[in-house]
Amino acid sequence: MRTAIYGCGDRLEKWIINNAYFKKWLIEECDYDIKVIIDRDRKKQGQFVCINTDVSVVELNKCVDFDIECFIITPSVGSEMIRNSIKQCIDNDPQIIELDTLIKMYYKWLYCQEKVTGANAVEIGGPSKIFEDLYAGFRSCDGVNYSVETTWGDFSSFSYEYSGRQLGKQYICEATELKDIPDTTYDVYLSSNNLEHIANPIRALTEAYRVVKNGGLILIAVPRKENTFDHLRDVTSFSHLLDDYLNKVDEYDLSHLSEILDNHDFLLDSECGGREKFLDRSQKNYINRCLHHHVFSMDTLKTVFEYLGFKILRTGADPYNWIIVGEKIAEMKK
Fold first, then answer.
1. pTM of the model
2. CB of 208 closer than 8 Å to CB of 301
3. What does the pLDDT look like over 106-125, one tens digit per residue?
4. Which of 62, 163, 174, 272 has a CA positioned 20 to 30 A from the CA of residue 292?
């Protein structure tokens, strides 16, 4: 479908220009052939080559020349004006769809939502806004947090809740030792912006494999380092993660602290209070769990999943996270 993008502002850059996964989904899964960017002043013309080589930057009234069938717009106070402008300039009654609608569709596809509706789920280190649309479709969702009180919330209740709604029960235990959860209990395992806080992430994912049924899904989201205070750090290699696993590294581990201190962007982490307070907090990391022990890339995540024997179903990204979905297909390799 020959498509124009109109009125998306900086979200154009975040979601399409700098997100190869979303862009690929638009083209391959939704059949949106992006031909035109509507830009009245054309000041940002150079960056649009990132979409593909035959995208043109034109004014709205030039769209007639491209026989556009669909417009992607951003909902805003001006969205009705944009719709009216399109109708005045285009005669063929094109489809008009809001970027937010496409983003919701993308998450549903990425999370394999058709497979997890009605599922019995467990989430590590949540609850998480990124999964809010999944919660409503689960039969239940239990939670796991390492303490009744964490930096991110109070989990003293036996109930696991999101926005005042009870999802399931709350377990207090380590992600690397889900000691109170029997084998093959759940259909779905969730973890968002949590794996980087775990000193031994492969060990945590072996527990994920254990508690999920055959055919169950494991859905992991981790930060994209370029949009965080970790942007100066190197991506952690798979060999390093494997060494930590084989050496049975535990949550008292601070072997990364020196490297973190050298490369942490304190300007992007104003809440930490500066280097000295950050160091003091980090030395008590077993209590607060604030450290990002590791920095992930999609390639690292995929290698870990393949090592453990997950079948990778989906890979993707939003402006802030790498997201991967795997399926447990047999007994764990390792």
1. 0.92
2. no
3. 999 999 999 999 999 999 99
4. 163
Backbone phi and psi for residue 174, each to the nearest 5 degrees, phi listed first: -75, 145
Q: Token pair for residue 202?
A: 């492969």
CA atoms within 13 Å, Cβ hemisphere of 104: 8
Which contiguous run of DSSP H or E holds residue 310?
A: strand 310-317
Of 55, 51, 16, residue with least CA distance to 35:
55
Distance CA(181)–CA(174), nearest Å, equals 11
On whether the CB atoms of residues 167 and 140 are closer than 8 A, the answer is yes
Cα gap 265→258, rounded to integer Å: 14
CB atoms near residue 7 (< 10 Å) = 24
Extended strands (E) in 90-223: 95-98, 120-124, 140-145, 149-150, 153-154, 159-162, 165-172, 186-192, 212-223
Q: Which residues pair with 169 in a beta bridge?
A: 159
Taking the CA atoms of 237, 242, 247 and 250 in sequence, report the sign of the dihedral they define.
positive
Cα of 297 vs its chain's centroid, Å: 12
The b/e string for 187-199 (b: 16+ C-beta within 10 A; e otherwise) is bbbbbbbbbbbbb
Cβ neighbors of 164 (< 8 A, separation 6 or more) are none
